[in-house]
Amino acid sequence: MSAAKSPSKQSSPGAGEAAAPTKPDTPITLIEAITQALAWEMRNDESVVVLGEDVGVNGGVFRATAGLQQRFGDERVLDTPLDETTIAGLTVGMAAQGMKPVAEAQFDGFMYPMVDHIVCHAVRLRTRTRGRLHCPMVLRVPWGGGIRAPEHHSEANEAIFTNVPGLRVVMPSSPARAYGLLLAAIRDPDPVIYFEPKRIYRQYKELVPDDGEALPLDVCYVLRDGDDITLVTWGAQVKETLEAAERLAADGISAEVIDVATLKPLDFDTIAESVAKTGRCVIVHEAPKTAGFGAEIAARLAEESMYDLLAPVERVTGYDTHIPLFRLEMKYLPSVDRVVAAAKRVLAAG
């Protein structure tokens, strides 16, 4: 098991090396924004603890927790055994007793042993105890493909968890949203799955004030205004979708781009308002097509926005197979070309 959990080849601080503090005017990456948010919350709330495999001494496989154990001690940043079932159970128990644990699943494919504790205990604690107990836990999950990882290390399994009542599912797509949404997730009184698109951990930087200001959960973000078509996406695919909107603009097509950000509960009103304006919609995600979360959005549009639609909704997704190894990996992920082609088909259809 330990051999399968080898560190990523992405450039990062060395094992146990503290991440250098960032200056207020220095742009940071998405992974640095996560570290910054964890440090802020741990500094200002002693009930926040971090746990997971290699999160302490080594600072996490992607170095998201680099330097935190040195700053806050090994009673608040806990290295656990390689045992996802125990990590999940320990996290639920801590949360039930008034702590705010932030656990790391290390990779998305390692979540499955955790499902029993999440589905059978974490999300039911509030109703089971008639509100006497709640479960303010966060499970951080490096998510998605695009980093040339082996099997079980690259999965897009968010739709599984959007089907679980009582569970929030959040996925940031930029450093600023990663910081603000993680703060909000930690402060939420109920369990949150916080998917982190690892393909864009270090892809670009932006200024992120370390001011402790959380962003609202359950809100979609309109990243680009448009009048001709609505492009809905989340996670790492935001980058390709914005690039597709730029290419469409060169052809005189005005595309509105929406980052869902919180998949569950879904801010459908923002999507419906955009579709009422444009009349057309393309949904982009890298998860497999069948029963992916895009299908839920398309179904809601069919139920509630049918008379606003001028053409059928189209989905640009991964394929109904596991994300392949690196030789074919980028062919699996939705590309800018596929998004542009889908948008033009929808525009031509009505």
Keywords:
single chain; 350 residues; alpha/beta; Rossmann fold; seven-stranded mixed beta sheet; five-stranded mixed beta sheet; 17% strand; globular; disordered N terminus
Question: What sequence of helices (H) and strands (E) makes up the elements?
Answer: HEHEHEHHEHEHEEEHEEHEHEHH
For the largest beta-sheet, the strand count, sense and barrel status come to: 7 strands, mixed
Low-confidence stretches: 1-20
Total helices: the number is 12
3D shape: globular
Tally the structural domains. Answer: 2
Q: What do we call the CATH topology of the largest domain?
A: Rossmann fold
CATH architecture of the largest domain: 3-Layer(aba) Sandwich
Spatial gap, N to C terminus: 53 Å
Mean pLDDT: 93
Arrangement of strands in the largest sheet: 2-1-3-4-6-5-10
How many strand elements? 12
In the CATH scheme, the class of the largest domain would be: Alpha Beta
The percentage helix is 25-40%
Sum this structure up briefly.
The chain has 350 residues and is an alpha/beta fold. It has twelve helices and twelve strands.
Give a verbal description of the structure:
The protein is an alpha/beta fold and 350 residues long. It has 2 domains: 8-200, Thiamin diphosphate (ThDP)-binding fold, Pyr/PP domains (Rossmann fold); 221-349, Rossmann fold (3-Layer(aba) Sandwich), CATH 3.40.50.920. The protein is 34% helix and 17% strand. It has helices at 30-44, 68-72, 84-96, 115-120, 125-128, 158-162, 175-187, 237-250, 268-278, 293-304, 326-332, 336-349; strands at residues 48-52, 77-79, 100-104, 138-143, 168-170, 192-197, 221-224, 229-233, 255-259, 262-264, 281-288, 314-318. The strands form 2 sheets. It has a 7-stranded mixed beta sheet, with helices on both faces. It has a 5-stranded mixed beta sheet with strand order 7-9-8-11-12, with helices on both faces. Helix 2 links the parallel strand 1 (48-52) and strand 2 (77-79). Helix 1 packs parallel to helix 7 (175-187). The protein is globular and about 60 Å long.
